[in-house]
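Pasting as-is:
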Amino acid sequence: MKNILVPTDFSKNSWNSIVYALQFYTNETCNFYLLHVTSISDYNGSNTGMLPTIDTIDTTLVKETKTKLLRFLKKIKSLSNNPLHNFSVLTSNDYFIDAIRKHIYEKSIDMIIMGTKGASGLKEAVVGTNTGDLITKVKCPVLVVPENAKFKFPKEIAFPTDYNLFYQNKILSSITELSKMFDSSIRILHITKKDERLTQFQQENKEYLHDFFMDEKHSFHRITNSKIDAGIQCFVESRDINLIIMIAKNLNLFQQILFKPRVEEISYHTEVPFLVLHE
């Protein structure tokens, strides 16, 4: 049984992430924990600039949030009555990351699934602040569901790498688990500059990946492009990619793909989910 944490702010985007999660795990026995985090420091019940009392928190914040969560849960159950899925609602009055860490520990969370609103302007980053903090500061697998993502079985998985890091078996096993779960093909992608060749270390890492994925459907791909995001856009379109897997440890790729400002012609991050894995 898997324990899945789904943070929600009751927005259209967070609803989309829940719908995606239910379909992603449609054949898996799961406990889904719906979590809403309210930051007390942002709450001003009387417009006086003073923080609320414990009684106010209990009677206003907690009760209102639980009511919204129960409505959300009712909406979910009207959408899906999968007997493999159990649901619980959680509320927390804390800093977002602290609340997430607490529930990961207490509920033995296997995966976090979170929607991202995307940026309202091209100068903003691909993922929002909460999502960005989550995938960089919390060592738990995170499935980031973009605003326009519609569920498709991830038959084609892109795994971008520069071959500069040796990945531990635990990380790679998470990828093979997904591959078996959906009968997916793993497309290992290297985006390189013109005339750039692999070092011996990079070549050894590439060969290790080939050996590790020997029993899975996989292939290696090389795209020449000076811009990583443009290379990924091209690959996503040409291979009909349904899921992109990122390793958080690979900071260069990570920042290039998820934390650069948006570019108008790059759209994969609004449609294709990202799975971020941690060592």
